Amino acid sequence: MEFVDRENEIKRLQRVLSAKKQPQFIILYGRRRLGKSTLIRHVLTEDDLYFMADQAEQSQQLALLARTISAKIPDFDKVAYPDWETLIISLSHRTAKRFTLCLDEFPYLVKSCPSLPSILQRHIDSKQLPFDLIICGSSQQMMQGLVLDATSPLYGRGNVIMKLEPIPIRYLQWILHTNAVQTIEESAVWGGVPRYWEIRENEPSLMEAVAYNIIDPNGTLYDEPSKLFLDDFQHSAQSSTLLSIIGNGVNRLSEIAGRMQKNATDLSGPLAKLVNLGYIERETPFGESPRNSKRSYYQLCDPFMRTYYRYVVPNRSLINLRRKDAVLQIISDTFSDFVAAHWERLCRSAVSGNQLLDATWGVASRWWGTVVINKERVSIELDIVAESLDKKKILIGECKWTEGEQAGKLFHELETKAQSLPFAKDREIVYALFLKRLATDGITEHVFLPQDVIDDFTAS
Q1: Of 135, 100, 99, residue with least CA distance to 116
Q2: 3-state percent breakdown (helix, strand, coil) of the chain, nearest 5
Q3: What is the pLDDT of residues 301-358, one digit of tens each?
């Protein structure tokens, strides 16, 4: 697959590595499949060294690293290095010209030698290392502990600390050459993970890719969550259960606890960990403090995880019986609603921090609650609510992933709902619709389509 995006990351890494001051220490982390190793190899030159660690014992790791170094320093592997201190000192003494050494899957090295971070700290603090050092890892919990925990030896030492994030949807359209609607549907399944895009690219259609790679016991992604959890969870059963429950529409803490037959207080830690690692998000209504709100929802925030726990886990028995056609029918029957929820998230993300409709908007979120309409208390939900940065305007938006919508009717419904909103008083309300297709009544003003969202409104 073509290497796309990461322009900002590449520029930042190249800028640091080209610094004329003392050698630099760079920390790169993020969940698997995001292309960390590919990014690093894109930045390194032929004079640099890249070492991919495994889960071998320390002696084997040191021997393999020495062999890698010998490609630059002849006969470096002719010596058996008893420990990391000896190898680093020897490498420092034999380095004639500054280069970059990358230690990929660094957590594996730390597992076999827990003192390695302290050893590196001493050499970094001494300012005597003659080479740049990059450490990289997929175990987010361990990498965060190594660099963000104030008690860690490497805390505060990094010249650059970079967490790699998923790639924006517009690059998926570029890779797959799909129209805007198809791109939204593809994104609902694969998210922004380049490895998944690479797998998808090998199949002629979305559903054929799903059938071959996800809902097949021999599929490349059939056990994907289990592989991801190996990096961050000693006991993955509870995390997988939480994701499965949330992914199938149980979103309130009390309901999740009831389903698991546990006290809600017992789940606060596991849920917080899943939030911290980026697997789920805690959503609160617009205008309420996440810390104090009692009306929060938990949602899966990774599209592939939503796909997996919506369609694989509940249908595992059918999949193992090779009833693939039955599972594909289940997907087909519910796919529009599944994509609709993803469409809402994309629209909120596109609005957040963007300029459209004569204002720049803050972070967009949902709102749900009870209001008085025509003297009756009515429970309503709003797909998108955002406040302008100057706090003078409120954007209220509706998202639809269906055909044949009438914009005029939808705008009227939004205006009716907005009359009694507690946070909209004394501020200008701006209405917007986000539709799968052009409205049947021909209204286009304040109406946004999939390509607008993919482009983040740059053409609007």
Answers
A1: 135
A2: 45, 15, 40
A3: 899 999 999 999 999 999 999 999 999 999 999 999 999 999 999 999 999 999 999 9
- Quote the strand ranges of 114-166, DSSP E: 132-137, 160-163
Q: Where are the domains of the chain?
A: 7-163, 170-344, 352-454
Say which amino acid occupies 32.
Answer: R
What span, in angstroms and rounded, lies between the C-alpha atoms of 189 and 302?
9
> What are the tens digits of pLDDT across the range 112-158?
999 999 999 999 998 889 999 999 988 777 788 888 788 899 998 99
Is residue 414 a contact partner of residue 393, using CB atoms and an 8 Å limit? no
Domains 7-163 and 170-344 share a fold: no
Q: How many CB atoms lie within 10 A of CB 301?
A: 17
Closest to 209 (Cα-Cα) out of 193, 217, 220: 220
CATH code linked to domain 7-163: 3.40.50.300
Which residue type is seen at 370?
T
User: What are the tens digits of pLDDT across the range 85-121?
Assistant: 999 999 999 998 999 999 999 999 999 999 999 999 9
Report yes or no: 200 and 178 within 8 Å, Cβ to Cβ.
no
Domain at 170-344: CATH code: 1.10.10.10
The distance of Cα 15 from the centroid of its chain, to the nearest Å, equals: 25
User: What distance in Å separates the CA atoms of residue 226 and residue 318, rounded to the nearest whole number?
Assistant: 19
Fold of 352-454: Trna Endonuclease; Chain: A, domain 1 (3.40.1350)
The structure tokens listed for 77 are 């592997």
- Specify the pTM: 0.90
Which residue, 24, 4, 21, 18, is CA-closest to 161?
24
User: Strands (DSSP E) along 316-364, which ranges?
Assistant: 355-356, 359-360
